[in-house]
Amino acid sequence: xxDTNYPLARERLLALAALSFAVFLVANDLTIFPAAITTIExxxxxxxxxxxxxINGYILVFGVLVISGGRxxxxxxxRRIFLTGAGIFVFFSILAALSIDIQMLLVARALMxxxxxxxxxxxxxxxxxxxxxxxxxxxGGLIMGVCGISDSIAPxxxxxLAEFASWRWIFLMxxxxxxxVGFLCWKWVVNDKPDKIEEHIDYLGVxxxxxxxxxxxxxxxxxVDHGFKSPINVCxxxxxxxxxxxxxxxxxxxxxxxxxxxxxxxxxxxxxxGIVTLLLSIVFFSAxxxxxxxxxxxxxxxxxxxxxxxxxxxxxxxxVSYISGKLYKKVGAKVIISIGSxxxxxxxxxxSHIDENTSFQxxxxxxxxxxxxxxxxFSAVTTAAITxxxxxRAGLAGGIIYMFQIAGGALGLGMNTTVVAMAPDLIxxxxxxxxxxxxxxxxxxxxSVLFVEGKSLKxxxxxxxxx
Length: 467
Prior knowledge:
Layout (H helix, E strand, L loop, with lengths): L8 H23 L5 H7 L4 H4 L1 H24 L1 H20 L4 H29 L6 H28 L3 H21 L14 H24 L4 H24 L7 H4 L2 H30 L5 H6 L2 H41 L8 H29 L5 H29 L3 H26 L5 H8 L3
Helix pairs in contact: 1-6, 1-7, 1-8, 4-5, 4-6, 4-9, 4-16, 5-6, 5-8, 6-16, 7-14, 7-15, 9-10, 9-16, 12-15, 12-16, 12-17, 14-15, 14-17, 15-16, 16-17
C-alpha cells in the first residue's frame, strides 16, 4: 500500500473526525427511516408491505455487497473506494428525494445500498489504520460510540422530519451530509492508493457470493410475511445453498486472489467472533423491533415518542462503547464480550415480563442494561475480529463482521415475528420472543467464554512481532 503516515497528531485527529462523521452517516441511514414509512405509504397510496422495502431493499443490497466492498477497499485503496461509495450514495439519495412513484423510490433507495456497502468497510479499515496499534480498542469504542449516538437520535429525527416537513428531506439531508463527509475525507485522510496492485478481484467469487447472500437474506426477509415453510422460502433457501457450494468451489480454485483469502477462511478465531456477533445481533434487533411496537400498540405512544423510547438504550450503547474501547487493552476481548453478553441476557429477561399495564419507567432499567451490554459487546467484538486478521485484510474483515450483523438481524426479524404471530396476543408474543432471545444471549455468552481469545491485544501484538 502507499504511505499512510500522518506527519502530525493534528492531521490524524482531523482524519478521525472526518471518518467519525462518515460512521454517523451510515449508522443514521439505517435507523432514520422506520418512523417515515407511514408517510411514504400515504403519499404514494401503497401498502405497508411495499413501503417497508425502503428499509429492506437498502439493507439487502448493503448486506449482499459489503464483503465485496471490503475486498475492493483492501486491494485498491480504502480512501478511493470510500469516495466512490460516497459519490454513489449522494447521486441516488438525490434521485430518491425526487421520486415520482414508489417504484422509483425503491430502486433509488436500493442502489444507495451499493454506496453504503463501499463506504462502511473502507471506514473501518481507515479508522483502525489511524489509531495506535498497541491500543486498537479505541477504534472500536469510537465507531460503536458514534453508532450509538446516531442510533439514539435518528428514529426521533426521522419522525420529526416526516411529521412536520417531508420524508424527502431525509434523503436530501443524506446527500448533503455525504457530500460534506466526502470532502472532509478527501482533504484530511491520507491517500492510501497502492503503488502497485498485486491482487485482483475474484469476479466469479463476487457473483456467487452475492447470489448466495441475496437468496439467503431475501428468504429470511420474506419469512416475516410468508413463514419459513412457504414454497418460495424453501426454494430460496435451496438456491442459497447451491450458490454457497458454487462459491466454495470457486474460492478453492482461485488461489491468492480469492474473494475471501485462505488466511481469513482458516482463521477460526475470526469466525468464532462472527458466530457470536450473529447470535447477539438477533437479540439486539428484537429489542429494536418490539419495544416501539409495545409502546405504540399497547401504551398508545405516537411514532415520534415511540422512537424516543429507544433513546435510553441507544445512549447507554454509545457511552459504554467508549468505555469499552478504553478497557480493551487492559482486559482483552473475552472479558468485555462476556460482560456484554451477560448484560444483554439479563436485560432481555427483565423485558420479557412486560404486560399491558407495564409503564415505560418499568421497562427503562431493562433497556439500560441491554444498551450497556450492546456497548460492551459490539465495540469489543468488532475490534477483536478486525485485529485478529492481517492489517491488509481489515476492510474485508469489517465487511464480513457486518454481514454477520445483518444476517443476525434478518434472522432475528423472521424468527421473532414468527414467535409473536403464533402467540394469542402481542404481549404474550413479546414475552415469548424476548425469553427465547435471552437464551440465545446465554448461548453467545458460553461461546464467548469457551472460544473467544482471552488475552489482551497487547499480548497478541507482542507474539506476532516474534514471527
